[in-house]
Predict the 3D structure of the following.
Amino acid sequence: MEYSEFDTERRRIAQSWGRSITDPQELAAAVAALHEQAAGLPDQADQTRAMRYLEILDDLVTEARTPESETVRRAGDVLLEASRPDGTPAERRTRAEAGIAEITRIAEAAPTIAERDAALEMNESLAETLGTLAEGAASSD
């Protein structure tokens, strides 16, 4: 498996949660399979990068298995909307930036530090989207 294949599958799993993957056990199985695939990446730097992303997915599995708070649910709804893959790169960038701002606003009003942190972690996925969009814009120049 090449890193690009890992990344495609990672994104598919993250974007499927709450849509086509709704059972926490199914999510856990998909992430576990991705762990196995990441271990086979030929490049050590790619393996290290993959493991960082897998930590985020592991957190998502933990959150999926834990009853969610209103704060986390609202932030998750924003994440789903903001990470939609449709639209032009500029529209996707605008949506991701607005999502980060809204998730941050929701997190700041969270009743506990744990809920705040859980909500803020969702911004990582949107920040990755912004980074990918920036890379795509830079490579097309």
Summary: The two ends are 29 Å apart (CA to CA). Helices lie at 3-16, 24-39, 44-65, 70-82, 89-108, 113-139.
